[in-house]
Every structure is written in structure tokens, then in C-alpha cells.
Amino acid sequence: MKQKVQAIGKALSGMVMPNIGAFIAWGFITALFIDAGWWPNAKLASIQPFMLHFLIPALIAAQGGKMVGGERGRVMGAIAVMGCIAGVATTGEDGGILVGQPMLMAAMLMGPLAGWVIKKFDQAMDGHMPAGFEMLINNFSVGILGMIMAIIGYYAIGPLMAAILAILSAGVNFLVNHSLLPLVSIFIEPAKVLFLNNAINHGVFTPLGAIDVESAGKSIMYMLETNPGPGLGVLLAYWMFSKDKMTKDSAPGAIIIHFFGGIHEIYFPYILMNPLVIVGPIVGNFCAILFFTVTGAGLIGPPAPGSFIAFMMMTPKSSIIISVLGIAIATVVSFLICSPIIKRSGAKNLEESQAEMAARKAEAKGVAAPVGAAAKNPSEVKKVVFSCDAGMGSSAMGATRFRNRIKGERPDITVINTSVDNVPADADIVVCQTILAERAAKSAPQARLVTIGNFLTDPALDSLYTELTSVGGGQAAAEPEAAVKEKKNVTKMLPEGIKLGLPSVSKEEAIQAAGELLKELGCVGDAYIDAMQEREKLVSTYMGLGVAIPHGTSQAKGEVKKSGIVFLQYPDGVDFGDEKAQLVFGIAGVGDEHLDLLSNISNALEDEELLEALKTTTDINLVLKKFG
Questions:
Q1: Which of 202, 258, 551, 594 is catalytic?
Q2: At what angle do helices 459-468 and 394-406 cross, to 10 degrees?
Q3: Which of 279, 323, 407, 503 is the most buried (most CB within 10 A)?
Q4: Residue 484, pLDDT score
């Protein structure tokens, strides 16, 4: 359940965060030009409702549609949410249109839904579109399906979301009227440490706050989760009373980052060192919310990020002192409660807590937390093994990229790749895709497992990198065995193995084409092509960054006649699940002969300009120059 909520939070955050600038612009116009603003101006204040009711929902829905359906989904999302907005509008006495409640929640639903609809349409039409009619069909499909989604939004989604918002608003009013709103701190503060705050903040508080601002010019909803005071109290207590020198010395820097930078995540490891400390922020925020409720405080927009600076910028001019006092109350109460707890406890050290937080952060981004054996202290990790089914393509690429990334800070760590069933006994950490975790655990019960979605751009890899580089490195480790072998029969890419400007096809067709091309080059037989399809059914060979590397299963290595690699370019992309691959590298390797070329591919991915050029180039020599 927690992972599902975190996934929802991630999706909501993904739609809202790219558009925070629009919220800030709307907030400033509200703060400056409404009747109670700094410089009242009725004409300029009239911009505010248009931004709230049309601009912001359209931006959110478009972003949500793009996340699911790409550029066509972006247009679909914007069209669909207009139906929701119209569905709650009414006609005034003068015949003018009166917009209803802000459709932010509707945008968060309709955007991804509309993107999904056009994505499914495109998949159904894949390979069945008459030549010469592509532009006509593409444009009319978005127009017609967008119209249908807008009609559904008008009659169903818009009114439904308005009803939900009305219920939530009534619930909040009940809490406020009965002085119960401070109790939400019991849920907010633990949720922040568990990275569930996005689901609460962007899914509930932001839409409710928008309604309050429209009617009252400010909202307490924006103050519930973003107050920097509770976390500041925790950090001050550790600075004053921690017995661990590293923790004590790190606290002042964390205070600056948290309070002025608004990065609340910086104080989460300090709570994880001693979970009882969470009582301080809970009670501190409780007291602050109670104070804000009694004084009728509120902000005119969401402070992003939750820093003191942003908090004050979103405070109406008549409430500056109240906002400062609310932050101070939360800080003092949190500090007074945390201080004796920290004085009397023997907490974990900060390194261990940072590692735990890295795991929780990866989990909150929709990635399974590390499983398997207990985590070693980062300084004790000496070997990281990337494993995939065959130990040939995906894992080799991931290992090369991670090795290049970490070698500057931790030259003492060896990074290699193997098949998931042959992980060496001295592996400290095994990185594999989630679906292979059970096999990896059996192969290396002594190792800690880090499960990922892809080998190139996964958040869990960022967390692992942060964890391992949080301590100093020792002497450089010996080169992985594969890297120091005498390089005989180095695999090269041939002109016959390069296909550019291919039209989009299904994933299965792209894999089949790569296999057929390997067969034409005399590298494999028919059975290997079948194994490539089976490998994809087991776990995706999509690597990230628009790159896929389909290859056969470990059982099919006997079908490889000679090592080879082919390059297929699909400028418009091939759907690999929820991702699109513009570059498809088909590989077949005898032993480790293909690893040198995989290293070249990995190095190419480090160069963003080259990678983007490879996705659209019509020059075969550019490909040969890099991989030939």
C-alpha cells in the first residue's frame, strides 16, 4: 500500500513540479494586486482567476498527458481538461460565464487518462496506417479523441471532481471550526520521512488551497506541510546536543540548506538515526498549525521549495509577523522536545542513516528498496556486481556506466557484470532488475540486492552512488578481469549492420529485425532470434536514455556463431513498455568479445549531444566512426 501511495505521489509530483513557476506567478499576482495585496490594482488582479482556472489546469493536464502519451498525449491532456472546466461553469445573471471550482484535481486525472487513450490508439494503428495518410490520421485522431475526452470531462469527470473537492472542503472546514486541523501534523511529519508528502501535498493541499485563495485571498493549506520550523528544531537539537562528532559537525550546514534552501530531505537522516525524535516535529507542527488557525493565517500560493524565503514571499503583507511567529513556534517546540531525546540516546551514526534514507528515497520514486543481506557500511563495500539474465548486454552496459561514474570518488570499488545465476561469492552489492531479484538472492545470499527498472537512469542507482561516495575511497582496485584480458577478435560494427531512418514498429518487430540482421551477418541462427524474443518477455532490455539492447537468453549462447552487433535507428521511437527507444542495438557475443563495443556504447551515452545526434542522423559514417 505504501509503495502504491508513493507511486501516486510520484505521478502527482511529476505533473505539478514542472509547472511550479506558474503557481508562483499566480501567487505573486495575487499577493501584489488583490484588494488586500501590497499594491492593489483591480485590472492586474483580474489576471489571477484566468491563471488559476485555465492556465494552471491546462499545464498540469498537458504534463500528465505527456508523461503517458508523449507529445500527442500533451495535446490530448490540454483538450480534455477544458471539458472539465466547462462542466463546472455556470451562467451569471448578466449571461456571462462563471467558472466553478479550480479543476486542478481533474487535470491530474484527465491528463494521464487522455495520454493513455492516445497511446493505446497509436499502438493499435502501429503498422496499419496507409502510406500517405499519416499526417491526416495523426491530426484527426487527436482532434476526435480529444473532443470525446472533453465531453467525458464535461459530463462526468468535472462534476465528479467538483463533488470530491466540496466534500474535502467540508471536511477541512469541520476540522477548522472544531479546532482539529492541528491533528494533521500526526500524519504529515511521518509522511515526509517516508516520502509520502507528494501524494498529500500535491494531491490534496494544493487544490484545496487554490479554492481558499480564490474566495479568501489566502489559505492555511499551504502552511501545513511546508513550514521549515519542525525540521529546523531537529537540526538545532543535534547541533547542540549530539554526542557523535560527525553528526554535530554536519548539522550547521544542514540547517542552512534546510532553512534557506528549502530542502527538507536534508533532516530526514537525523530522524532516522533515532525514530523517537519524530515526536518533536509532530508536536512542533501541531502547535504552529494551532497558532495559524487561531490567528486566521494563510499563504497566497504554495511556497516552493519549503524554505523560509519562499514561505515569506507567499505571505500576505498583513501576516508577515504571524508567519514568522508560526515558524518560530514550530522550531522552539521541536527543539525542546528533541533535545532531551538526543542527549539520552545512543543513536546510529549519520552514514548508516543516510544509506537508509537513500533506500527509502529510491522506494518513494517507485523503485523497490534494496533487499537481501543487510547493508554493509559504505566504506566496506569493495565489489558491486551488475547482473542480468545472460550477463551479456544490459548488465555490461550498466556496469560500465556505473564504473565510469564512481571511479573518481571510489577507486577501491570493483564494478563487474555477470549473469544473475553466476554472481561471485565475494560480491557485496548486486544490482539487478526487480523481476530477477529472487534469482539473484539465491545466487548471492551474502550480498545486498539493489533492484532497478533500467540500468542507465534509475533513481536507485543515483541513491547507490550517493551512498557509496558519502565516504572517502581507498586505493584503486584491480581492473575487472574482463577489462584486462588480452583483447582478441574485438567486435566491430559493420556498415551492413547499420540501418537508419526506420519507421516505428512494435517492440517485437524491432527485436525480430535486429535478430534477422545478426543472422544475415552470420552471427547467429534462427534459435537465437527466438531467444531474443523470450529474453524480452522475461525482463525488458530497455536501458534508458532512448536505448534498448535486445539479446538472447543465457541458454541461447550456444546458438552464437560469432560475436556481432547491429544498430537500428528509429527516429520516432519504438515503445518498450512505457518508454520509447530510438536506438536499438542487437548483440550476440562469444565469451566476452562484445564487451569492448558495449563499453563504446556506454561512453557514447555520456555525451548527450552525440546521443541525440545518433537518434536522428542520416550519416552512416557517424555511426561507424563511433562504433566501427
A1: 551
A2: 40
A3: 323
A4: 40
**Whether residue 287 lies in the annotated active site:** no
As beta bridge partners, residue 386 has 417, 431
SS3 205: helix
The three-class DSSP label of residue 223 is helix
CA-based torsion, 618, 126, 62, 109: positive or negative: negative
Residue 151 confidence (pLDDT) above 90: yes
Query: d(Cα 120, Cα 137) in Å, to the nearest integer?
Result: 14
Whether the pLDDT of residue 1 is over 60: the answer is no
Please state, in angstroms and as integers, the Cα–Cα distance from residue 197 to each residue in 11, 265, 268, 313, 486, following that order: 12, 11, 13, 22, 53
Cα–Cα nearest to 532, from 393, 373, 329, 384:
393
- Report how far residue 140's alpha carbon sits from residue 325's, in angstroms, rounded to the nearest whole number: 57
Q: Check the CA dihedral 135-138-141-142 and report its sign.
A: negative
Q: What is the amino acid identity at position 291?
A: F
Highest mean pLDDT pick, 142-146, 159-163, 339-343, 362-366: 142-146
pLDDT in tens, 407-427: 888 888 999 888 777 888 889
Q: pTM for the full model?
A: 0.50
pLDDT at residue 248 in the model: 83
In this prediction, residue 93 has a pLDDT band, given cuts at 50, 70 and 90, of low
Residue 275: exposed, middle, or buried by beta-carbon count in 10 A (0-12, 13-18, 19+)?
Answer: exposed
Given the residues 338, 388, 432, 523, select the one marked as catalytic.
Answer: 388
CA atoms of 114 and 110, how far apart (whole Å) = 6
Q: Strand 383-388 vs strand 429-433: parallel, antiparallel, or unpaired?
A: parallel
Q: Verify cis geometry, omega within 30 degrees of 0, for the bond prior to 302.
A: no
Contact 530, 489 (CB under 8 A): no
> What's the rounded Cα separation, in Å, for the pair 289 and 575?
47
Compute the C-alpha angle 383/389/393, nearest 5°: 75
What is the SS3 assignment for 285-321?
Answer: HHHHHHHHHHHCCCECCCCCCCCHHHHHHCCCHHHHH
Active site residue 523: no
pLDDT of 367 over the 50 cut: no
Residue at 79: amino acid letter: I
Average pLDDT, the chain: 81
Distances (CA, A) of 308 to 253, 264, 324: 16, 11, 9
Burial of 25 (0-12, 13-18, 19+ CB in 10 A): middle
